[in-house]
Amino acid sequence: MQSDLTKTKKRAMQYFYSDGSFEITFGGMCLLLALYFYLQAAMPESLLSNILNMGFVVFVCLAAYLINLLVNRFKERVTYPRSGYITYQQPKGVQRTVKVGFMLAVSAIIGGSLAAFITHSPRSLDWMPGLTGFVLGAVLAWIGFRVSLRRFYGCGILILLSGFGLSLMGIGNMRGLAFTYAFSSLVLLLSGSLTLWQYLKHNPAANETTDAP
Description:
Low-confidence stretches: 114-121
Mean pLDDT: 75
Largest sheet: none
Structural class: mainly alpha
Order of helices and strands: HHHHHHHHH
Number of helices: 9
Oligomer: single chain
Radius of gyration: 19 Å
Shape: globular
């Protein structure tokens, strides 16, 4: 009985990720972060850079809120009409792990920045791309483990390797973070797009099914 209940819960969690919307929106957020860090690297000490630096936490919170909003809207318009609606409990388990993991990545970036200012050693941030890649990769791998979806393992490994590769290349902290998030965005958008294509292929809309010969 317990085994059947566990399988049912796992299928419900898998359903949340079945359409690729999570990866697409998360990838979009990573793309915004890549642009943020690229501007920081391209225009250091500028007015725009200082404004972006002061508004980083606000930017992340707004982006996280936007992700949740976009995922819900997409499911309401595309997913639920095709394959049904599932009522989820308040965020916990996998979804809570994702949020906590992402906040760890943000905390690591902020903490590392403060450490660099305190020690007056900017080179101490050279491993930030590796640390960020590790956190994001670990979160995605954990999702894959909890919901038994292998594509998240692949995404996590690729992002982890990219972060450490950029750190070993000595590309720097801001530029390295920009490239890390840009590569993460590419991986997630590709994974989400392929998943969405498969989902739409196997779950046509009701009017498409009716019109089919």
